[in-house]
Amino acid sequence: MSNLMPIAYKNINQLWAYVFTETLKRLGLAYAVICPGSRSTPLAVAFAQQAPDIAAISILDERSAAFFALGVAKATNRPVAIVCTSGTAGANFYPAVIEAQESRVPLLLLTADRPPELRDCHSGQTIDQVKLFGSYPNWQAELALPISDMGMLGYLRQTLIHSWYRMQAPTPGPVHLNIPFRDPLAPIPDGADLSYLLTKFHPEEFFAGITGTTSLPDHSQLSIPPEWLQSQRGIIIAGVAQPQQPQEYCRAIAQLSQTLQWPVLAEGLSPVRNYADLNPYLISTYDLILRNQQLATRLAPDMVIQIGDMPTSKELRTWIDTHQPRRWVIDPSDQNLDPLHGRTTHLRITVEELGYQGVEEDKSSVSEYLQWWCNAETNVRVNVDETLDKMEDLVECKAAWLLSQVLPPETPLFIANSMPVRDVEFFWKPNNLRVRSHFNRGANGIDGTLSTALGIAHRQQSSVLITGDLALLHDTNGFLIRNKFVGHLTIILINNNGGGIFEMLPIAKFEPPFEEFFGTPQDIDFAQLCTTYNVQHELINSWVHLQQRLNPLPNTGIRVLELRTNRKIDAQWRRDNLSNFAADNTNSQ
Which of 4, 25, 76, 433 lies at a CB distance of 3.0 to 4.6 Å from 18, suitable for a disulfide? Predict the structure, then answer.
């Protein structure tokens, strides 16, 4: 009998919470993030008693806690539960809920609530929590109040089994359960006579047969459409992706590329760039190539296969939109992944499920079109590498290029939004380091950056976060997780004292109001900030200094490696260089 049962005997809330957590344990839940509060007491006690099967982690700030849970779910590819009390506490989950939905991450949101009689009567810490997160959850429900009835315990068990399924199928995402409790909330007798119910409640029988295996949709294998094999002006776009099995994913894309003899334009946030030896037709500099208008015209495709989400590159999107090629999107989700609204067919399978029956790879020759792409990639890559290799000044774009070459193999890397994801797309060099990149590119916000990175690093291999100063400052409460955090996180802080991405937009020419309302410098001494949270800080003075700190990485703790750059110089460097890397390639094709 579970060690929770003695507590569960005391009142119906605790018996309810025991069934709740025991069901989740048997489904396979391994982590529950618990935010402090009174109304959620039954759940907090029950989860705490489930150790070590379920690791219960206490985190003060609900927004930070939700993003930490998001990070853990990303790293483990398993659902994570997060618990909060009633009132505005759950509202702080909202940004992470949106990101979980948009980036397909399974989160179980458990908001404790007042019973119906304490609503709409000015009772404290009470808001309308039903459908609190709008349409973002995959599924949502308000549970019945706990009562001593075997049928209702069965209802609770089945609701949780259904919630577990809906977090993972047909497309992963968040599920919200609103859970009302009446007093007493602590595990003390509530006056109810549970003896009759407990004579009928036999845990091993009650929980028998529960399994976390989710019956996902059967995506029948699809053979390659004949028109793909007939086109010699096709491209494959390996878009933003965090597959569970990156090597198998990259191998499948490589097989498709070699079968069709089409180049693979691989986003920096795709694992394809980190398994470069698998793919002989890998194009990493497409954004820079397409800034040369003559090349962009010459390389216009007839057909495009988009695997996963569209890359970040505005140049690529504009180019596709201009030429309107026939397009296919390969992705098993039920989502619309065509923001360009083109002539698109959505094949709702994984790239690994593509069939090659009766298809032979033609390795006898490479088409002129494919050779153009490969030549452009070779030439532009040389220009980029030579330029950045010679760069001694701390200009922020070099950080992404350096990381792609010096990180320990299989390092989990979280890439913050705004300029870091763009510099990764521009400059991340193809490698065979099998770096495991993570990012919040569902809604593309800067909120929760630090907390998500800590969640990804928790109990994993020593990890790295690359971020700007504003994204880090927006989530400094994430440092409160440090005493619960197990593992190591190195934070590469690009401190240009403001919003560098806005320097690339037309509004940067308007001063005022640019600096105050867009640049928004915060003038923070990060060494002092780190001292406040007892986090190690080091000011990086050269690229060699940074490289020395990245390999090997420490095993424990959190540290900040700060690179101070000049926002105006960073922006001017991009304006001066991005369009020139492919400028001398037009006649070399």
Answer: 4
Pairing of strands 354-355, 222-223: parallel
Yes or no: say if 22 and 69 are a contact pair by the CB < 8 Å rule. Answer: no
Task: Return d(Cα 124, Cα 136) in angstroms, integer.
Answer: 27
Pairing, β 412-415 against β 354-355: unpaired
30 token code pair? 């391994």
pTM for this predicted structure: 0.94
For the residues of 455-478, what is the DSSP string, one character each? HHHTTSS-EEEEEEHHHHHTTGGG
Q: Residue 194 — very low, low, confident or very high, per pLDDT cuts 50/70/90?
A: confident
CA-nearest of 515, 451, 516, 521 to 489 is 451
The alpha-carbon radius of gyration of the chain (Å, integer) is 26
**Region of poorest pLDDT, from 296-310, 350-364, 479-493:** 350-364
Alpha carbon distance 157, 473 (integer Å): 41
Structure-block tokens of residue 20: 């709740």
Cβ atoms within 10 Å, residue 249? 23
Is pLDDT above 80 for 385? Answer: yes
Tens of pLDDT, residues 100-142:
999 999 999 999 999 999 999 988 889 999 999 999 999 999 9
**Residue 410 · residue 438 · CB < 8 Å:** no
Token code pair at residue 199: 């004579």
**DSSP structure string for 315-369:** HHHHHHHHH--EEEEE-SSSS---TT--SEEEE-S-GGGEE-TT-----S---HH
- Closest Cα to residue 520, out of 426, 446, 572, 576? 446
Q: Percent of the chain having pLDDT more than 70? A: 95
Which H helix or E strand runs over 211?
A: none
Residue 406 CB coordination number (10 Å):
17
Q: Which candidate, 30, 136, 113, places its Cα nearest to that of 77?
A: 30
- Provide the b/e sequence for 442-453 (b: ≥16 CB within 10 Å): bbebbbbbbbbb
Q: Is 533 helix (H, G, I), strand (E, B) or coil?
A: helix
- The CB-based long-range contact list for 329-332 (8 Å cut-off, 24+ gap) reads 330/305, 330/306, 330/354, 331/307, 332/171, 332/217, 332/219
Structural tokens at position 370: 């494919």
Strand, helix or coil for residue 483 = helix
